[in-house]
Structures are given as structure tokens and as C-alpha cells.
Amino acid sequence: MRDESRARVLVIALLLVSASLIMLDIRGSAAVGGLRALTGSIVGPIESAIAAAASPFVSMAQSVTSFGAVDERERIATEELQRVAGTSQEDKAVSESLEKVLKTAGVGGYSVIPARVVAYGSTQNFGGSITIDAGSLDQIETDMSVISGDGLVGRVVQVTPTTSTVELITDSKSVVAARIEGSRQAGALSGTGSSNRMSLKLLDPTVSLKEGDKVVSFGSPDGRPYAPGLALGAIVGFQGEQGQADRIAFVQPAAAMSALDVVGVIVQQSRTEPRDLQKPSPSPSSTPTETPN
Q1: What are the tens digits of pLDDT across the range 145-178?
Q2: Residues whose CB is less than 8 angstroms from the CB of residue 96 and which lie 6 or more positions away in sequence, other chains included
Q3: Domain match, 151 and 216 both
Q4: Whole-number Å distance between alpha carbons of 22 and 65
Q5: Of 58, 119, 186, 250, which has the most beta carbons under 10 Å away?
Q6: CA distance 214 to 233
Q7: Domain of 261: which CATH number?
């Protein structure tokens, strides 16, 4: 009981001292500054020790309370890095596709306007048509040949100032004059509406053919709608017997019709018939020349 009484008296005394100090502080007493400095010199080290001891627990608490925000920031940063990486990969793919288109045009001696495919036609298997982001403002006209880096894609059938519609050679209405590379046997290559199969009927059904034979465009007058010497595809099968009038060879397109991205519209033909794209060019030194005396 005596200890409890002493504790109660001490608490009351401290309260009275605190009240007095508050009144003196309000009045601006100079004595309070000294008392505050003395208290600080005594209490300061104690506070520092307590803070040092508690700092691991405070840091842990701060980490726990901010975990959600950090996790969200990491997620956003990861998504941004993935987006940038994806953009870089897309740019690389476009650059490679454009390079292939320009190389194909260069082999044939053609000048092209590059364009991107922005839409496919309504055909479910992408065998019909595409829309590209180049039009009359880019010197595009109807009946111009359209190529990818792998060969002939189709012809321009409709033009607006900024876009053009291209009928693919796989469209069921498409017919392209063709020939067999090497033998140069002529025929007609027709679209079937499928993105991965066309049908070839030669003028001479008795000609011997085999799977793997390359088919190239025969060409049209003035190169429109189809320029000559462009890769069309390769024979993958047959229907009917050799020598029969209804014999048909099935051809797989050289270009991936369902995955077109960068294409080139041929706006200027070469002055001479180009080499077949699948044919290696002869070496300039293969023909000897006689030096005049």
C-alpha cells in the first residue's frame, strides 16, 4: 500500500511539473530552454538506443506495408519491358520481310512500292484478297503485280487514295498464265480458294511432271496484271493420268498467303524479261571473249 501511495504521489508531481513547464513555455520563460536542453541530453541517448533496437522491426513493418506497391511496380515494369521487347521483335520481323521483298524485286529487275497488309478479305481460309496501306497517292494503279519476299502474291483490283485491294492468286476467281521452270512448258494456274493449294493445267497434258517442279509466272503484255518470271509455287501432287486432257497438277504457293505482312507493288517493269527467280544467274566469266589484235 505504501509503494502504491508513493507512485501515485510521483505521478501527480510529474503532472504538476509538466503543467508548470507548459505555462512557462507559453510565457516565453528562458528557464524552460535550459530545462528542455537538460531533458534532451538525458532522454536523447535513451531515444537513440530505443530507435536502434527497434529499427529492424520498423524496417520489417515498412516492407510489409509497402509490399503491395512494390509488387505492383515490378509487375508494371515487367510488362513494359515485355512490350518493348515485343516491339523490337516486330520491327526486326518487318525489316527482314522488307529486305526479302526488295531482294526479290531486285532479282527480277523491278521497282516496287513497299506496303503493309492491313486486312484480309472475308474468306475464312484467307484465300481471297488482302488490303494494303498504299494507294493512288503512292502511284498505285489497278492491275499492278504484288509480290512478297517469296514470290507473286496477286494483283491490284481496287485503289483508293491511301489503300488498295489485292486479289490473291489463290482466290477462286484468279487465273495466272504460268510455265514450268526449266522446261518452260506453259499452262494456266487457277486459285482454289484455299490459301495453300492451286491447280495447274498445262497446254500439253502429255508433258512429264514430277513433285517439286517449280512454277513461275509466264507474264502478261506490258507486265500487267502479272509480271513474268515470278515464283508461283511448287508441284505437290496430281489428279488424273499423264496424257489425259483433264490432268491437273496441284501447286503449293511460294508465298505464305495466310501470313502476309510486308509486300511490294511492282510499279516499273524491267526493260528485258527477267530471269526466273528460282534460277541461278550464269557467271560472267563463263563465256570467253576474244581479244582483238
Answers
A1: 999 999 999 999 999 999 999 999 999 999 999 9
A2: none
A3: yes
A4: 37
A5: 250
A6: 6
A7: 2.40.10.340
